[in-house]
């Protein structure tokens, strides 16, 4: 069974970002079939945990469970509201505490919500470069939903369906990721000691 994790960085309840996240999750599940588990995580529920991690360098148990879901997922759906022409601070703070190896080469569907269509380029000038920097594999179609899209959303539905199909295909064809544990093959203490005495 494959797994897809949807992250929603919406701040309000109810949230248009969560609404978009749910529609994307449903579309991905429809493309993947019953053999795919799709989980949704609301970052607002972990805002304090994320801040504590940034301040202390350690994830508490609640946040560690979310980070383990990120690591174990075969694909990700990342959704953020647009604030000041970019992703939200909560979204970026979460990305800052994620182990880059957890998303390396992993298929990712990018999505954002905002008040007007003029913010739609945030997907290409902010979100895509961020995930490319982490060496994730964003699918070609990103989904932006402005306030006007919720009234007559035929075009939004088409984008959701296309993006979900791309993520489903990427997850199915993704080669198995092999994670290496640096503690599996430690450097012998004698060698470390020799290296320090050589100077």
UniProtKB/TrEMBL annotation:
GO molecular function, one term: FMN reductase (NADPH) activity
Source lineage: Bacteria, Bacillati, Actinomycetota, Actinomycetes, Actinopolysporales
Residues of the NADPH-dependent FMN reductase-like domain: 3-149
Presence of keyword Oxidoreductase: yes
Entries under NCBIfam families matching the protein: LLM_duo_CE1759
Pfam families: FMN_red (PF03358)
Source organism (scientific name): Actinopolyspora biskrensis
EC number(s) given by UniProt: 1.5.1.38
Keywords: Flavoprotein, FMN, Oxidoreductase
Protein name per Swiss-Prot or TrEMBL: FMN reductase
Coiled coil: none
